[in-house]
Amino acid sequence: MNAIPSPKWLSREDRIFLGGLAALKLLLHLPVLGRYGYHHDELYFIACGRHLAFGYVDHAPLVPWIARLADELFGASLYGLRIFSALAGAATVFLTALLVRRLGGGRFAQALACLPFLTAPMFLRTHNLLHLPAFEILFWVAAVYLVVRVLDEDEPRLWPWVGLLAGFGLLAKHSMLLFGFGLAVGLALTPQRKHFRSPWLYAGGAVAVLVFLPNLLWQVAHGWPTVEFLRQLNAGTMSGISAVQFVLGQVLYFNPLAAPVWIAGLVFYFSQAGRRFRALGWTYVALFVLLALIKSKIYYLAPAYPMLFAGGALAIERWGRRRAWLRPATAGAVVLSGLVFLPVSLPVLSIDATERYVRAITFGAFENVYELTADLRGMFAWEQRVEIAAEVYHRLPPAERERTVVIGRWYGTAAALDFFGPSRGLPPAVSTHMTYHLWGLPDHPIDTAVAVDVERERLEEFFEEVTVAAQAELENVNPWERHFTVSICRRPKVDIRQAWPQMRRY
User: Fold this and answer.
1) Are residues 319 and 244 in the same domain?
2) Residues 489, 464: contact at Cβ < 8 Å?
3) Are 52 and 101 within one domain?
4) What is the pLDDT of residues 425-458, one digit of tens each?
């Protein structure tokens, strides 16, 4: 690939201004990075990072690699684990402002484009955890910036660099494929379709495939587990998301009073002023329609919003030249709405106070407040669960422990056992859920199982004797997790090792 041509020169003042916006994002997160405790997904990423591979059943490999790096550098540190997401958020803010500058926006537009990103509940929550979207969004915005340069400079030699970013984006989250789909539609529906005649575009695709190839080969070697996971996800969780919920979610997740900014961005890309970049407008429309039709999770469209914020901020900056009230009114509304939603987005209050606040600002509209707070409650009581499991395990006679396996009901439980368990004398956990199933069983014979939070009915399918050895009512967790049990299972009905391949749950 040829070297990237130099962008428009950034002055020292530009670097300070853009860096200041990025620093503001970081400052929002630093005081609360260590609040609550480990999220179950974070514990899972740590477990995956300790089983380094080019793939995992339900996610791409980059975030587990980052978890491994955090583990090596900082040990058991919430700050050390989460700082990478916060830094990714700060970098995304910098690139969003840089994108506005590239489109022709001034300082006000650069700041206004970043305000929704700084205040949207989706982005605040995402960058306060080690989370897949934190890095997907970063690669998406970086790729969009280069696409804008391709369209602005008519420089097809940049396509391989777009492909490089897309390839790493795929290693961060497989839904980066949506970027390629949307962009292809956007190019096809505009005069920029001429790029389909350029070998540089296909070189970019080849680079993306080459970067993504290790994960692709892992999928082939393991029988395409991610495809099976997505099939089951679509049949289960996503089937319950209606088109109305998806549309309303776009307003709620990305700061309700910031909606005029991204709507203005969509208008800008389809206006005469934004015609050179119209492919970006079609990219959003294509993805919106696709995701609404397949009933996707609401946040799957999140990476498309920074480019709309950029276009909308530029449009509002220009419209504001004749309407003096427009600029301060728009910025003020975004900030005000962000402040209202801040306690819902970040763990600044106790969890119970957060839920009281949610009920107050929504006037009781949510019958189940856990729709908005489930992720926050997913950070509580993991160490307590492991302590109870360890007490049960150590009640077993030493000879029996040598032939015992500790089973977690799902990946969150198993990952907590692996993270907090070694210091309490627990062996590595097993689970039939997600990538844990691929890691299999220990080598020693299995006569007994300590089953952590597994339904009795499920256990009785495989063991003659199932005894509840410990029970607890957990605090601050989601309602369906409050009643916690640990069971001792003896006299297997089947050879667990032989039955294991059929026991997987994706």
Assistant:
1) yes
2) no
3) yes
4) 999 999 999 999 999 999 999 999 999 999 999 9
